[in-house]
Specification:
Radius of gyration of chain A: 19 Å
Oligomer: heterodimer
Mean pLDDT of chain A: 92
Order of helices and strands of chain A: EEEHEEEEHEEE
Number of strands of chain B: 27
Strand order of the largest sheet of chain A: 8-5-6-10-9
Structural class of chain B: alpha/beta
Helix content of chain A: 10-25%
Distance between the termini of chain B: 57 Å
Largest sheet of chain A: 5 strands, mixed
Distance between the termini of chain A: 51 Å
Number of helices of chain B: 8
Radius of gyration of chain B: 22 Å
Shape of chain A: elongated
Strand content of chain B: 35-45%
């Protein structure tokens, strides 16, 4: 399988083979590329950023982010799970607005402070 | 008439950094004129992460970067900010007319910094055929509606332009429940970051139509379909290659243009390649006392570079106001093979300079060759592309024997 490494602008063309359960990576110029390829094959993770509703005098939406990346296949579920959540000002940047979203081990954090 | 030492037009990433730089140079009277009700500019609607790796050692979302940087100036009383305000005119001798919630105010400044950002190229500028229909938006406006108001401006989306804004919106709309039917790119390659192609298109199986463009839009009041057409290697439309794609939203991500209306009226000299002002290493334009930085000067792709540039501009502007500027001879940059543009276009002998530039095409391995009479420097680079701005820092000490112009070329 072919993959382009996204860790640095070099964009090495990686070749990944699964030989009897062992994953072999070639084409990488550094160890980060090998790790990226293995992660992408076995368990690709993604950071999710979105907005949630907020009760505030000034703002309608609060931008949020996952505290750690979640499985790629769960991104849409995470956003869906946040659709009915509404928080209240005041909020501080970094506040946990939802703990352990969908049991995935990642919290949802506020990306912005909103005073009122 | 109110008077200020420095008036900064725009409180986005460039303007905030310029205020900090000006303050650090010893200026005690700075006014930022900001059109929104908060600083941060475009960062406030860029809720995706990836900002601030160089500045804060983290990959923050836009609003987080804006807040962290703003915190560096918010408690400085010498920096005042007027919100919900816009400069509508600059007259000779830096007299500005500001429209604010207090009405029209005239203000005199010793120096002005244009940190006005950029605007999106609109549909009319690229000649898409068809009536004016509801459902044709710039990618940035759709982003603002979505991220600031939680509104989806369409359900079945086609995107023209595979630069980062188009790619980011492909992902954003999909996450919000829209169906993104495809992204068309007129060039045979995308100039968006590889990580964005991966995470915004491939992750969601959104097709990328390279060497394609949108020829026309169709609908009755509301957009109902677009005609997608292939182009050849000279970017000419290939007859017979049309295909109609049903959609209710066309997002345009077809280029950003520095916003310089206010100083174009004063006859400022613009660089046709950057579409921003021509500046020296103090970021002063051809109009004495008027400076420029950030996207208003040249469109950036890394906010860390915007902040660095804004801070340099603010500092240099402050030195100008205090009469401390370098009055040595000016050296011009001469651009050779492979270099698309250079900012600043010229610089003062005796200053350390951070040169920001872009290359004309993708170079896998190359050398940036910088040379002149009395100077020769080669910088090895691995994998540089036009869409990623490059930086070359050269000290006054290195350049002390230079006579005449400084030439730049990329050697493969």
């Amino acid at each position: 399988m072919k993959l382009v490494c996204i860790n640095c602008p070099r964009g090495c063309q990686l070749e990944v083979e699964n030989i009897n359960g062992e994953i072999k990576v070639t084409g990488n110029s550094c160890p980060r590329g090998a790790k990226y390829a293995i992660d992408e094959i076995t368990n690709p993770l993604r950071t999710v950023t979105t907005t949630i509703a907020i009760e505030s005098v000034v703002y309608d939406r609060l931008p949020v982010i996952t505290s750690s990346p979640v499985p790629k296949g769960k991104m849409m579920d995470v956003v869906k799970a946040l659709k009915d959540i509404k928080v209240k000002a005041p909020i501080k940047l970094g506040d946990i607005v939802v703990q352990d979203i969908l049991g995935l081990g990642s919290d949802i954090l506020a990306c912005k402070s909103i005073e009122k | 008439m109110d008077k200020h030492q420095i008036v900064i037009i725009g409180g986005g990433s460039a303007g905030i950094a310029a205020a900090l730089g000006a303050y650090e140079s010893g200026i005690k009277d700075i006014l930022i004129v900001e059109i929104a009700n908060e600083c941060g500019g475009i960062l406030q609607q860029c809720i995706h992460n990836g900002f601030g790796l160089h500045t804060f050692n983290e990959e923050l979302s836009g609003p987080s970067y804006a807040e962290k940087y703003f915190n560096l100036i918010k408690d400085i009383p010498e920096i005042k900010i007027t919100y919900n305000s816009t400069v509508i005119k600059i007259e000779n001798d830096n007299v500005l007319t500001i429209q604010s919630t207090e009405g029209l105010i005239k203000v005199k400044a010793d120096a002005v910094i244009m940190a006005t950002g950029c605007r999106e190229r609109p549909a009319g500028a690229i000649g898409i055929k068809g009536n004016r229909l509801e459902g044709v938006y710039s990618a940035g406006s759709a982003q603002k509606y979505c991220n600031k108001q939680g509104l989806l401006v369409g359900k079945n989306v086609f995107i023209l332009g595979s630069g980062d804004i188009g790619l980011i919106m492909a992902r954003r709309m999909t996450l919000e429940g829209a169906h993104v039917l495809g992204v068309a790119e007129i060039m045979p390659y995308s100039n968006g970051l590889a990580r964005n192609i991966k995470q915004c298109l491939e992750d969601f199986d959104i097709p990328l139509y390279l060497s394609h463009t949108v020829e026309s839009v169709h609908g009755d009041g509301r957009l109902s379909s677009i005609t997608l057409i292939e182009v050849d290697d000279k970017l000419q439309k290939i007859e017979g290659s049309e295909q109609e794609i049903e959609c209710d939203l066309l997002l345009l991500s077809v280029g950003l243009i520095p916003e310089n209306n206010l100083i174009e009226e004063l006859g400022v000299k613009l660089d046709p390649r950057t579409k921003g002002a021509i500046v020296d290493d103090t970021y002063m334009t051809s109009i004495p006392g008027i400076f420029a930085c950030g996207n208003a000067l040249h469109v950036h792709d890394l906010v860390d570079y915007v902040s660095q540039e804004g801070r340099r501009c603010g500092k240099a502007c402050g030195e100008y106001v205090l009469g401390k500027q370098n009055k040595n001879k000016i050296i011009n940059n001469v651009l050779g093979n492979g270099v698309s543009y250079m900012v600043p276009q010229s610089f003062h002998f005796g200053n350390d300079v951070d040169f920001m530039f872009r290359v004309r095409k993708v170079f896998k391995e190359c050398t940036i060759h910088i040379y002149g009479d009395g100077f020769d420097k080669k910088i090895k680079k691995l994998g540089i592309v036009p869409s990623e701005m490059q930086k070359a820092s050269i000290t006054a000490e290195e350049l002390k024997n230079l006579h005449g112009d400084l030439s730049w070329e990329v050697i493969e």
